[in-house]
C-alpha cells in the first residue's frame, strides 16, 4: 500500500513573515492529513522553514537542484547543501524549469542522480503541453521523459523516486485533468517504471499536479494510481492545502 503524499510547491512566492503564518497554519492541522505532508520552498527560505518545521512531521523540500556536485557553478545549489538544511525532497524537471530554463530530459536525469546520491527523494515532473495533447503526443512525451531517467538510473535508484504527472495545460490554469485522464497517464508511467524494476512499478508514488483544489481533490485521489498531489496555488493557503490532504476517504 503506497502512503499518500501531498507536496506544496510554493514556486517563487513567500516572505519571512508570510512563510511563518502559512507554516503555522499547516502545522496546526497536519495531524488530520491522510498522508504525508511536504512543502517545497524557495532555497533562500530553507533555513527558516527547516526551523519552523522541526519536530512537526512535515517534510521540507526544495524546488530544484544542481546537476553538478560541487565547485565553480555560480548561482547553483547542490544536493548536499539541500541535505544540509534537512531537505527530504526536491522537485526536479518542473515544466516551468523545462520551459523557462531549457532543462532537458538528460539534465533532469542527472539532477535526479545527484539528489539520490545525497539521500534526497527526487520528485520528477513529467507532462505534455496542450499542443502535444492535441496532437496526440501525450504518450510520446511521457515515454521520452521517463525513458531518459531510466537509461541513467539503476533499478534501485528508480525505486527511490517520486514522479509527478503535471499536464502543462493544467498548471496554474484552473483547468485540472479529469480523474480518468490522470489515471490513464499514471498507469502508463507505472508500466514504464516497472520495465526497469518490478518493485519500482509497485512502490513509486505517482502524484498528480495541475490546478488541484479542495473541490476536485477527492475525485482525483480516488483513482487507484493517484498517490497524492503536487500542489501549487492551493498550497499557499493553509486551509486549502490541508483540505486537499484530508480529501481521502
Ligand atoms: P497549480 O496547482 O497552481 O496549478 O500548480 C501546479 C504545479 O505546478 C505544482 O508543481
Describe the model.
With 249 residues, the protein is an alpha/beta fold. It has one domain: Aldolase class I (TIM Barrel), CATH 3.20.20. Helices cover 45% and strands 15% of the residues. It has helices at 16-29, 46-53, 79-84, 95-100, 105-117, 130-134, 138-152, 155-158, 179-196, 198-203, 214-221, 238-245, and strands spanning 5-9, 36-40, 59-62, 89-92, 121-126, 162-165, 205-209, 228-231. It has an 8-stranded parallel β-barrel, surrounded by 6 helices. It starts with a strand and ends with a helix. The structure holds 1,3-dihydroxyacetonephosphate. 1,3-dihydroxyacetonephosphate (13P) binds at residues 9, 94, 166, 171-172, 209-212, 230-234.
Task: Identify every distinct bound molecule in the structure, by name, code or SMILES.
Answer: 1,3-dihydroxyacetonephosphate
Total domain units: 1
Distance between the termini: 15 Å
Strands, total number: 8
Label the overall shape: globular
CATH superfamily: Aldolase class I
Query: What structural category arises from helix and sheet content?
Result: alpha/beta
CATH topology: TIM Barrel
Which class in CATH terms?
Alpha Beta
Spatially, the strands of the biggest sheet line up as 1-2-3-4-5-6-7-8
Name the CATH architecture.
Alpha-Beta Barrel
Mean pLDDT: 97
Helix content: 40-55%
Radius of gyration: 17 Å
Beta-strand portion reads 5-15%
Total of DSSP H or I helical runs spanning 4+ residues: 12
Low-pLDDT stretches: none
Largest sheet: 8 strands, parallel, barrel
Helix and strand pattern: EHEHEHEHHEHHHEHHEHEH
